[in-house]
């Protein structure tokens, strides 16, 4: 079974060409369509699904941090 493709939703102003990404993280098609159905359509704008490439997907991996408290000193360390 192939993994599902991931997308971002972008709104495009047809008059100015201005583009804005509306999603904070990549989503599968069904999630994008659900989110899109909750957005208001405005005059002179359209919504596009932009497929996320493999390199973009790797950039989106979350970084996990661990809080360390030693003798009252708080530090953060990265968990791989």
Describe the structure.
- 19% of the residues lie in helices and 39% in strands.
- The protein has 80 residues and is of the alpha+beta class.
- It has one domain.
- The strands form 2 sheets. A 3-stranded antiparallel beta sheet has the order 2-1-3. It has a two-stranded antiparallel ribbon with strand order 4-5.
- The model has no long low-confidence stretch (mean pLDDT 78).
Query: Count of helical segments?
Result: 2
Chain-averaged pLDDT = 78
**Separation of the first and last Cα atoms:** 28 Å
Which percent band covers the strand fraction? Answer: 35-45%
Gyration radius, in Å: 18 Å
Helix amount? 10-25%
Q: What would you call the structural class?
A: alpha+beta
Protein traits:
alpha+beta, three-stranded antiparallel sheet, 39% strand, single chain, 80 residues
